[in-house]
Structures are given as C-alpha cells and as structure tokens.
Design a protein that fits this description.
heterodimer; A: 443 residues; mainly alpha; two-stranded antiparallel sheet; two-stranded antiparallel ribbon; 64% helix; B: 59 residues; 2 helices; elongated
Amino acid sequence: MPAPTLTDTAAALCAVLIFLVPCAAAGLALINTGLGRSRSAAHLMMSSLCVLSIAALVYIVCGFAWQGFIGGPSHSVSLAGKSWNWIAAEPFFLRHQPLEGSPASLAALLGMFSVGLAALIPLGSGADRWRLGACCISTALLAGWTYPLFAHWAWGGGWLEQLGTNYGLGQGFVDAGGASTVQAVGGLTALSIAWILGARHGKYTHDGMPSAIPGHNGVLVLFGCLLALVGWLGLNSAGAILFSGAQPGSVVQVAINTTLSAAVAGLMAAAITQARYGKPDASLTANGWIGGLAASSAGCAFVKPEAAAAIGLAAGVLVTVSVEWFELRMSVDDPGGSISAHAMGGLWGVLSVGLFADIPVRALEAPGGPSGGHPGQWLAQLVGIATLIGFVLPLTYGLNWVLDRVYPQRVDAEGERQGMDLYELGAGAYPEFITHSDEFIER
Amino acid sequence: MKILGFLLLLAGWAIVIAAVALLVMEVPRAAFVLAGVGVEIVGLVLVIRAHPVQRGEHE
C-alpha cells in the first residue's frame, strides 16, 4: 500500500485538528471524576494526568514503532499465498522520522493523544478502587503493546486495512476516527479492569442486587460532555484525513455527523430515562452522549447526516440499555459507564460502517474517485469486531491479569473505606467540605 | 470456566481468520465468519458467567 501524501494546507489543517484532541481527554477525565465518589475525586484527576503522561511517553518510545504508518517498514507473514502485515518495524523513539508535518509524523502526533484517550477509558470502570501505581503500569501495557498492535492493523496498513485489496472485502476494514482503535480497545480494557478489580464494597447486596452509588458532581460530568465534543471533532476529522483518505473539505461533513450522532444519542438516553424513571437521568444522558460520539467515529466521513442520526439513535438506546445490563445481569461495577459508552458504542460504530457508509475509493490513492456501496464491506467490519472481541479482549485481560498477580491492582479495604484521596494522596479534593468534630466543641 | 471462555474467544477468532484466508466463495466465507463470531459469543457468555462468582470473593 503506497504512502499517502498531503498538501501543505491539508497538513496544517490536520495539525490544528489534532490539537483539539486533548479536549476529549479533559472531557473524559471530568466525566470519570464526576461519576465517581467525592472522596476519590482528586485521585481520579491525578490518575488521569499520570495516565496521559505515561501513555504519551510509552507510545513515543515504542508504541509508534509497532503501529507505524501506511507504506512504512513492517513485518508480514504469508498465509494461503497472501501477505498478512501484522506489525510495523519503525525505529524506537521516532528516530529517523522527520517531524515536519509529513502524514507519518501527524499520525504519530494523533496517536500520542488518542492512546491517552484510550487509556483514560478504563479509569471510569476502575474508579474508587484502582491503585495509582497499578493504573500507570496497566497504561504502559496498553500504550506500549495492545493499542499500537491493533492500530497498526486498522490504521497502519495492517492486515485488517488490506482486507479489501487482498480478499475483496469492500474497501477493507474502515474506521476513520478510532471507534475501534481508541473506543473499543479502551472500552474492552475497561471491561477487563472491572472484572479483575471486582465491584466496589457495598455495590452489591448478598443476594446480588446492585445498590445505587450516584456520582458526586453532575456539573463536571455534563461539562465534560461538551469538552469531549470539541475533542471528538478534531479526532474524527484528523483521523478521516490521515487514515481513510478523506479530503480536507470533508471536515464539514465529519463535524455535522459527529455532532448529530452525539446529540441524538444524548436525547435518546434522556427520553428513555424520562420514560422509565419519570425524570431524565443526567449520568445516563452523559453516557448516551459519549456513546453517540464513540459510535460516530468509524463512519463519520462516509455517512449522510440522516444515517449519522440513525447511528446516534441506536447508540443512545444501546448504551442506556447496556449500562443497566452490565450492572444487573453481568454484575459488572462500572461507575463511569465506560464499558457501555466506549466498548458498545465503538463496536456499534464499526458495524454501522458496513450498514450505512458510502465509501469513496481512497481519495489519497485516487482523488475524486467513484463511490458507492461495496459488497463485503459489512464482512470486513465484522472481521474487525471479531478481532476486537476474540483477540484484543483476551490479550488485554491476560496482560492485566498477570499484572494483578505481580502487583495487586485493587486498593485494600481500608483504602476503599477512607477514599482514594486520603489513602493514596494524603489529601482530599474538597478539604473545606469535611466536617471536623472539634468545630462543634464549645471553647 | 473462565479459561475455557477465553480459549473459545481465541478459537472463534481463529475460525474467522481461517475463513477469510482460505475460503474464496462469498457465501461459505460469510457463513464461516458468522460461525466464528458465534463461537466468540459462546466464549463471551462463559467468561461473563465465570465472573460474578469471583466478584463475591472481593466482598
């Protein structure tokens, strides 16, 4: 597969769009914090900062070397006469990689931010009980191995991306904005973490019924949703240009589709909770909004606005239902709703490309080429989903299980009772709100 | 049961890969990919059923 080229204008536009992506990280950090307990709020923000730092460092040291970019050096195996490109072979630490706005350097920059985004997702499911040291090591595993491997397959000219040219499955696996590489990989890691850590103390009664532990700050959660939209606009637009050959002008379509999907998903979640509980639920509406954003990512450059709305509608229903399903039926304690919003939303987004997308022949290879439905596209998307569930989930679970054996990831019972802030940081997020008993003693 | 579930997840993925690599005709290829996904779903159910028991050990 030839290396794509970008004009100077397209490269500059791409760089500006990539600079918006940290807003998505800020949004997710606020959402995770707001949906957790107040006694672990500072710990969650501290964890978010550490996770972003470690993800960026590890990704630049070795992650991008294994992710690579289309047309770069890579390792392949031959299977039934066809070449299966399974891992990149770039040098570590971006050596020999000119950082001057080439598509590969922009992909490295986008990767550095998006791997941080993926690493923030498990923080939501492990909130209130995941040790700071453990989440840092787990992030290193994600940023150094799991994420780059799948990102190479989907974005770096790997075998998933080549399913079209090698086996005639549509245009190959298509994921413009990271519904699989970022959202589903992060969401499935969140599921692994929730399983390994177990539920928070007091979440389930002895007969297995869940009790509500509401988030401590709805304002943080809803402001996080608005920030996340800005970041997603950058992520989807830059990803579409860099990895799916979308023309720079398509950023308008990407922005409309991304916003529509999130809006309809959020409204759907609000409507469902209004119908079921008599009042719209803010946390589920936020989960629906994020689920809509995650679902929009895969096909944002290739679907019509009405299809984007339909994708968002289905995402809103799926996320709202699955939050309850994970909690009630699967006994998974996911305080941030990360698994439903990111894994379920992302997987649905990947599948929706096969159902709704109208993908042009890759514009970077043949600008202005014909477009239309492609037989086998749904099968390429299904192979991607099968890879996420059948390979990425066991891989990320296995890595975190081994880590848990070597370095227990869950805080001990006393730490959970005190709150992560006091136990691991030595100070709370809201010290002025603590009522000290000696304030009421007569002097 | 958990290990069996994860083995089924990997086996399902292997069926999907084999179907894509070895089969040329559209219908059998799609059928085998769907069968592989089916095996993955069975594996996922086993993994899910294995975990609530473990949750109790934490409490």
